[in-house]
Amino acid sequence: MRSAFNTRLIRASAAGAACLLAASCQTAPPIDRTSNAALFSVVPTCASGASANLADGLRIKYLGSDPDDPHRCMVQWSDRAHPLYFGFWSAEPKAPITEEARAAFLTALTGPVGASASFPMQGGRLWNRATVTHTSNGTIAVAGQTRTALELAVVLHDAQGRPDVRAETRYMIDRATGVLLRRQTVTPMANGEVTTTTIWQVGSLQEAG
To answer: In this structure, is residue 68 part of a structural domain?
Structure first.
């Protein structure tokens, strides 16, 4: 299958975004996908006191973890705090993450490249199952500096069991801070091509202290 990766940055409104925001068009920096042996021995704690600017200038603040759940990170933008598990994943509205989902993310985050686990989606009409995979270790450029990152792919599977109907999202996660550096959706086209759309891109990152 021939794949043409046409990357673009799209704007999403804060009110309509279920999980993350992005804006203005920009070509995403390349990723060094060289595999290495370094792994998360433990999942990084939620970033606290750090801040970032997205490629469009949107200001992000990292407020640490929920006192009741260390994996539930509080991330603020547009004057609102958004709870994101592991700093990038939004569970079903008004429902905490399931233990199956938590275990799947922990498997992928702490395992080697290729580590994968699945979990059922809660009340999903379109998607009934998600698979999380640690797809690569590498580096990504942020404000001219090289940062070591881990890439996860989350694939949502069709509730009707159609193998060609799926939704894939890729997350690039900073190893030092756990901050989500980039989020992309991957869309197979009818002509066999693949379109990759960047919807979250950190342009600069200021660590706490």
So the answer is: no
3-state secondary structure of 112: coil
96-109 pLDDT tens trace: 899 999 999 999 99
Q: Is 102 helix (H, G, I), strand (E, B) or coil?
A: helix
**Closest listed residue to residue 61, CA positions, set 79, 43, 84, 86:** 79
Q: What does pTM read for this prediction?
A: 0.79
Q: Nearest CA to 87 among 48, 119, 140?
A: 48
98 neighbors 85 (Cβ within 8 angstroms): no
In one letter, which amino acid is 11? R
Do the Cβ atoms of 151 and 31 come closer than 8 Å?
Answer: yes
pLDDT tens for each residue of 148-193: 999 999 999 989 888 888 899 999 999 888 999 999 999 888 788 8
Domain count, the chain: 1
Domain that holds residue 179: 8-23+100-206
**Rounded to 5°, angle at Cα 4 from 109 and 112:** 15
Task: Specify the pLDDT at position 14.
Answer: 35
Q: Is residue 46 part of a domain?
A: no
Phi, psi of 143, deg, nearest 5: 55, 40
pLDDT band at 137 (very low <50, low <70, confident <90, very high): very high
Within a domain: 37: no
